[in-house]
């Protein structure tokens, strides 16, 4: 998982939580490389229920100031409702994000505006490959 404002990889949605661009300009600096690594390390043990061939899943997460997720929304609802393999992967990713065992997230409280909304792009290959 890597938070970033712009996708740097040629692969779409490669297991990278990214601050979500919204109608309002984001406030504060972007998520740092150290925060990216820390998030990946923290959530990785909670990732279960999908295989290395599962599809990528994007989930928008609202994070509280105490560094715990308060809401996780699977972004591709149409595919979730029509593709059983995607639904399995999305449910596994959602469980990993919301699992209390993998919280609170190792993010700097002083940088709350940089990480209060994150889009996690789960690439199962990063967990099972």
Description of the structure:
It is a single chain. The protein is globular. It has helices at 33-43, 77-82, 84-98, 112-115, 125-128, and strands at 18-19, 57-63, 69-74, 117-122. Strands 1-4-2-3 form a four-stranded antiparallel sheet. The protein has a single domain (18-128), classed as Fusion Protein Consisting Of Minor Coat Protein, Glycine Rich Linker, Tola, And A His Tag, Chain: A, Domain 2 (2-Layer Sandwich). The protein has 129 residues and is α+β, with helices and mostly antiparallel strands.
Could you provide a short overview of the structure?
This protein is α+β, with helices and mostly antiparallel strands. It has 5 helices and 4 strands.
Fold blueprint:
Layout: E1 18-19, H1 33-43, E2 57-63, E3 69-74, H2 77-82, H3 84-98, H4 112-115, E4 117-122, H5 125-128
Antiparallel strand pairs: 1-4, 2-3, 2-4
Low-pLDDT parts are: 1-28
* Secondary-structure-derived class: alpha+beta
Output the radius of gyration: 14 Å
What's the quaternary structure here?
single chain
**Main sheet?**
4 strands, antiparallel
Number of domains: 1
Assign a percent range to the helix content: 25-40%
> What strand order characterises the main sheet?
1-4-2-3
CATH topology, what is it called?
Fusion Protein Consisting Of Minor Coat Protein, Glycine Rich Linker, Tola, And A His Tag, Chain: A, Domain 2
> Which H/E pattern describes the elements?
EHEEHHHEH
Q: What is the arithmetic mean of pLDDT? A: 74
The amount of beta strand, in percent, is 15-25%
Number of strands: 4
């Amino acid at each position: 998982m890597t938070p970033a404002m712009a996708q740097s990889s040629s692969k779409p949605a490669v297991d990278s939580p990214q601050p979500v661009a919204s109608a309002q300009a984001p406030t504060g600096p972007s998520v740092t490389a150290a925060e990216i690594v820390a998030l990946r390390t923290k959530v990785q043990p909670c990732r279960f229920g999908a295989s290395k061939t599962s599809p990528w899943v994007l989930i928008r997460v609202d994070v509280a100031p105490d560094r715990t997720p308060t809401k996780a929304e699977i972004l591709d609802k149409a595919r979730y409702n029509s593709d059983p393999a995607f639904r399995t992967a999305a449910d596994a990713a959602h469980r990993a994000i919301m699992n209390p065992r993998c919280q609170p997230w190792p993010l700097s409280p002083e940088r709350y505006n940089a990480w209060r909304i994150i889009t996690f792009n789960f690439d199962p290959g990063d967990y099972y490959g």
